[in-house]
From TrEMBL:
This is MFS transporter. The chain crosses the membrane at residues 19-39, 59-76, 88-110, 116-137, 149-168, 174-195, 207-226, 238-256, 277-300, 312-334, 341-358, 370-397, 418-437, 457-479. The keyword Magnesium does not apply. NCBIfam families: efflux_EmrB (TIGR00711). Signal peptide: none annotated. It is found in: Cell membrane. Keywords: Antibiotic resistance, Cell membrane, Membrane, Transmembrane, Transmembrane helix, Transport. Gene3D superfamilies: MFS general substrate transporter like domains, Multidrug resistance protein D.
């Protein structure tokens, strides 16, 4: 029969250990997010140590993003089928083992394989973490604070990765950028076994195998296509073929999901206007943000001459402002305001910071020209991420919470892949055109090249700012949910089929 989620039974009493459980979930999520960038700074050292070619080094990053982004939907549904706590612990153990294997790698192939394994277990771990958080916090006020902390990790973890990666690479060894995950995972596993409570599983559920093949295959093709577009160019035959295959598989996937008895991704999740708006908002916001991380890392090191550690520390104000915007502003206002009243202004604020960065030059001052922009961007993203997470996962039927959480993470991964490839291509093309249009003698060549590089970054940042404004528009028009009522899980119930 069909009932409304949340109406059929009395509310489940709150878990008394939920705040300690949040610490465990936050620790695991931080580990996953850190790993998307912590290896970036270590990559030059790893390349020299293992003898990687310039053409193959990208696989240290691509192997992780391919497995992570491509398998998230599967990981989310597995969490729904076998239990979130079990998949959470399995993901932690597997991620730690893959990290240890990567840190001990003696050949490039072994490192690539270990990074792919990290992505596989991250695809199981990330949706389990978000799903456990969703089911543990049902009161809107507590939910706001919990998702504020989670949003900080999602938004600032990448920037923190640069700091940790710089410190470990400069003072220890690049291998510690992978080994560091082992003690974190051990602590998180112990905490999970002692503190986390697994919500009931949905009886009679089973895995949609055709949906897995179609959905995961389409996502892998798209993520791989965007990764290759960065180095090969958008018109390359392989890139176009990957895009075509990805779109075709995902089109068939959507058709199949409307007919499958137990779909991998129930389409009612996407038909909900607020939820679909949050997914699209997340993808666009992360698309713009990943470009920022890429450009500012190279700008600070290659143009201003910062060391890896100094580069990481330069991102600290961004991380701190995300923390303030998320936990002190967004978490306090979300129970009182509709989500779009935070989302749209937050992304406008972040876009304004990016517009300030379009004025940077080869001799910009960090304190007066870069720092104010990073603070604005951080505050804006702090206002954005927590309402997206909270609204996208609110009111979901219990058996669908894992796959819904996975869809949020998938929108992040796809957005990050598109942003890295698209904005880097724009920056490279604009920089090359700038250099080609300016005749230079032998003594001026290096200056022109540096100016061209910065010009490329500023052009790409204009595009990033426009994308962020588009995200603000999407949130303002699509996310129409009201402020959560005290004591309710969601603003509107979601249909749930019960056998």
């Amino acid at each position: 029969m069909s009932v409304w989620a949340g109406e059929a039974a009395d509310p489940v009493p709150a878990d008394p250990r939920r705040w300690w459980g949040l610490v465990v979930i936050a620790l695991a999520q931080l580990m996953v997010v850190l790993d998307s960038t912590i290896v970036n700074i270590a990559l030059p050292s790893a390349q020299r140590d293992l003898g990687m070619t310039d053409g193959n080094r990208q696989w240290v990053i691509t192997a992780y993003t391919l497995a992570f982004g491509g398998l998230l939907l599967l990981g989310g549904r597995i969490a729904d089928l076998v239990g979130r706590k079990r998949t959470f612990v399995t993901g932690l153990v597997g991620f730690a083992a893959a990290s240890a294997l990567g840190g001990a790698a003696t050949t490039p192939g072994l490192l690539f394989g270990a990074r792919a394994l990290q992505g596989v277990f991250a695809a199981v771990l990330a949706p389990s973490a978000l799903s456990l958080l969703t089911t543990a916090f049902t009161d809107p006020r507590e939910r706001g604070r919990a998702f504020g902390i989670y949003g900080v990790l999602a938004a600032s973890g990448s920037a923190t990765g640069f700091i940790v990666g710089g410190l470990l690479t400069e003072y220890l060894d690049w291998r510690w950028c992978l080994f560091v995950n082992v003690p974190i995972a051990v602590i998180a596993v112990a905490g999970a076994l002692a503190l986390l409570r697994d919500p009931p599983r949905h009886a009679g559920a089973r895995l949609d195998v055709p949906g897995v093949v179609l959905g995961c295959g389409g996502l892998v093709a798209l993520v791989y296509g965007f990764s290759e577009a960065e180095s090969r160019g958008w018109s390359d035959g392989l890139v176009l073929a990957l895009f075509a295959v990805g779109v075709a598989l995902l089109t068939v996937f959507v058709w199949w999901q409307s007919r499958a008895a137990v779909p991998l991704l129930p389409l009612h999740i996407l038909r909900d206007r607020d939820r679909a708006g949050c997914f699209l908002t997340m993808m666009l916001a992360v698309l713009a943000m990943f470009g920022l991380f890429l450009f500012m890392t190279y700008y600070l090191q290659a143009v201003l001459g910062y060391s890896p550690v100094r580069t990481g520390l330069a991102f600290l104000p961004l991380t701190a402002s995300i923390l303030i915007g998320s936990t002190q502003v967004s978490a306090r206002l979300l129970p009182r305001l509709p989500p779009r009243m935070l989302l749209a202004p937050g992304m406008v604020l972040a876009a304004s910071g990016m517009l300030i960065l379009t004025r940077m030059t080869v001799r910009s001052s960090y304190a007066t020209e870069i720092l104010p922009a990073l603070i604005l961007i951080g505050l804006g993203m702090g206002l954005t991420f927590m309402p997206v997470f909270s609204t996208a996962t609110a009111g979901v039927a219990p058996q669908d919470s894992g796959v819904t959480s996975a869809t949020v993470n998938t929108s992040q991964q796809v957005g990050g892949s598109i942003g890295t490839a698209l904005l880097n291509t724009i920056a490279t093309a604009s920089g090359a055109a700038y250099v080609a249009a300016r005749p230079s003698g032998p003594g001026l060549r290096s200056d022109i090249v540096r100016e061209g590089v910065v010009h490329g970054y500023t052009v790409a940042l204009w595009w990033a700012a426009c994308i962020m404004l588009l995200a603000a528009l999407v949130a303002g028009l699509m996310v129409t949910a009201k402020a959560p009522r005290h004591g309710t899980v969601a603003d509107a119930p979601v249909p749930e089929s019960v056998a």
